[in-house]
Model the fold of this input.
Amino acid sequence: MRYAVLFEQTETGFSAHVPDLPGCVAAGSTLAETTELIRRAIRLHVAGMREDGEPIPESRTLAEYIVAA
Done:
């Protein structure tokens, strides 16, 4: 499974969320730590959905940087 993850720098480090998995979030003091935490969060989130018999959402989010000059 492959999902888009959005990272934001905060005053204390970084946060991340997965638009296609509402409620799947993580925060850490470094980008590397936050990346690992969100990877774990995705696994746990999907496992919980499977356990509950919920359908696993397909990845639909696209991300691209646009230069607005």
User: Anything to note?
Assistant: The longest strand covers residues 6-9. The chain has one helix and three strands. The mean pLDDT is 97. The CA atoms of residues 4 and 18 lie 6 Å apart.
